[in-house]
Amino acid sequence: MATAKTNTAKAKTAAKQTTATVENAVNEAANAVAGVFDAKGFEVPEVFRSMAENGVVQAREHYAQFKASAEDATDLIEETFETARDGVMDLQHKALDAAKQNTDASFDFAKQIMGVTSVADAVQMQAKFAREQFDAFVDYSKDFQSRLTQVAEDTAAPCKAAFSKAVSAAK
């Protein structure tokens, strides 16, 4: 959990640094272009000047779109990992609960088998215990499968939503 949050924080910091670097580069390029056009004794035709200004405006617009897309992707990844982490933790807790129940049942069986007076009773008790454990395992497996399916669906939901949004935006 701490590693995911640390990696997320590092990714956000790297994204902010990249954003600042790109913004500085765009501003420097704009200033350089403006400096060339403001040079004394050098007259650039209005057509070229407007083309250069339009290019800078378009570059800024495209950069803003790229930045927004990158932030959306980062948020999507964070949400997906958080959902997956929560789901896996729930599955781990369920597995531990099943292991505890199995251990408790085994100890109870060991106590009961110690009080048996005949081999026939021991065999009958062993068969009953095996059936109960098998039934418990089947129930646990069904529950685990349904929870695992739910975790997979919940983890994929943000990606599905983002994909649907991208497809509808592309139309």
- Span between termini: 38 Å
Structural class: mainly alpha
Number of helices: 3
* Rg, alpha carbons: 32 Å
Total number of beta strands? 0
DSSP helix fraction: over 70%
Average predicted local confidence, pLDDT? 85
What is the string of helix and strand elements? HHH
β-strand percent reads: under 5%
Which descriptor suits the 3D outline? rod-shaped
What's the story with the biggest beta sheet?
none
The stretches of 5 or more residues where confidence is low (pLDDT under 50) are: none
Could you characterize the architecture of this molecule?
- By secondary structure, the chain is mainly α.
- It is built from 3 helices and no strands.
- It has helices spanning 2-37, 46-114, 119-170.
- The longest helix has 69 residues, at 46-114.
What is the compact description of this entry?
The chain has 171 residues and is mainly α. Helices cover 92% and strands 0% of the residues.
List keywords for this structure.
rod-shaped, mainly alpha, single chain
SSE map:
Layout: H1 2-37, H2 46-114, H3 119-170
Helix pairs in contact: 1-2, 2-3
